[in-house]
Design a protein that fits this description.
This protein has 313 residues and is an alpha/beta fold. It folds into 2 domains: 192 residues, 3-Layer(aba) Sandwich (Rossmann fold), CATH 3.40.50; 97 residues, Diaminopimelate Epimerase, Chain A, domain 1. 45% of the residues lie in helices and 20% in strands. The strands form 3 sheets. The chain has a 6-stranded mixed sheet with strand order 8-9-10-11-13-12. A 5-stranded parallel sheet has the order 2-1-3-4-5, with helices on both faces. Strand 6 and strand 7 form a beta hairpin. It starts with a strand and ends with a helix.
Length: 313
């Protein structure tokens, strides 16, 4: 069976789906997508005709929009082998769940959903991954806890955070390969880090603390849509850690506006619980969750931001 997977590039939730797909299927081609280029990536496969070569196609931790959704729904060759698994409220509010091939769920009896948790459920229900494999089950749950931030708000569990530190340390492909080998060789035991992984995590912790201290010294404050924003130029991988740093240290801002020129996005993170950053991101042409969202930076904006960043240098 030939499998094609489109999944989110930026975090362990997107990576989790690539890892699960490799565990479940022998032949998997995966495409790591940014939040805002999914439609373009799928269109490439349409244009060269390769999309019809696959037996099953998955989109995970990302949401399809119109007209791509209707295009798939009206394609007799595709609609019965196309599956979307997503957990973003914007997709639900856009009525993207009306198609037979879309599963968009915000929460279930376990708590808030993630792309990995939804995909894991599908694979288990279809006998493609063994439900009794404790290591894979725990990996999926750790990923869910981090992506929904329940590791912090509900469980006070550092393991999910350490998993994302490992991802930040080794990168997308390194993480996929590392976790695939770990889970593929699992013998139904609890998920734990080996000595090398612990070393990489500890090194990353030290690096992160130094970065956060430096970033926190360079905060700009501005009124954005009637709210006080703390604006910082950062490397993309530190967006969640810096937001948590602001929360823990009671910084006087409603939300953080984290500009990552290396990734071409602005990330929005609420610092005060009653602030919905998804609405802010949508006003800026973006999308996301109520507490974590993003918007793309176009070339004109990027040039202007670079001018601001380099001013006085």
């Amino acid at each position: 069976m030939e499998v094609l997977l489109f999944t989110h590039k930026s975090d362990i939730d997107g990576m989790g789906n690539a890892i699960l797909a490799k565990l479940a299927f022998k032949n998997v081609e995966y495409v790591l997508c940014e939040t805002f280029n999914l439609q373009d990536e799928i269109n490439k496969y349409y244009q060269n005709g390769r999309i019809y070569n696959f037996d099953i196609i998955f989109v995970t931790d990302l949401w399809l929009e119109e007209p791509t959704l209707s295009k798939v729904a009206n394609d007799e060759k595709l609609k019965n082998k196309f599956y979307v698994f997503d957990h973003h409220k914007s997709a639900l509010e856009g009525n993207f769940n009306k198609y037979s091939f879309t599963t968009i769920r915000i929460s279930d009896d376990k708590g808030l959903c993630s792309g990995t948790s939804l995909f894991y459920e599908y694979l288990v229900n279809n006998g493609l991954i063994d439900f009794n494999n404790k290591t894979i089950k725990e990996f999926s749950e750790l990923t869910r806890k981090y992506d929904t931030w329940e590791w912090k708000t509900k469980y006070n569990d550092e393991m999910p955070h350490k998993l994302t530190l490992l991802f930040d340390s080794v990168g997308c492909e390194g993480y996929i390969q590392l976790m695939f080998e770990k889970l593929n060789n699992s013998v139904d035991e609890s998920f734990r880090f080996n000595e090398l992984e612990r070393m990489l995590i500890n090194n990353k912790i030290n690096q992160v603390q130094e970065k956060l201290t430096n970033y926190a010294k360079k905060v700009y404050y501005a009124n954005v849509l009637g709210l006080k924003a703390g604006i910082v130029f950062i490397d993309y991988e530190y967006r969640n850690d810096l937001a948590e740093y602001f929360r823990q240290n009671n910084y006087d801002m409603d939300f953080a506006m984290l500009i990552a020129l290396d990734y071409g996005t602005i990330s929005y993170r609420n610092i005060k619980d009653d602030v919905n950053v998804r609405l802010i991101a949508e006003a800026m042409g973006g999308k996301g969750h109520d507490k974590a969202a993003s918007s793309p930076i176009d070339e004109n904006q990027k040039n202007e931001l670079i001018k601001i960043l380099t001013k006085g240098k």
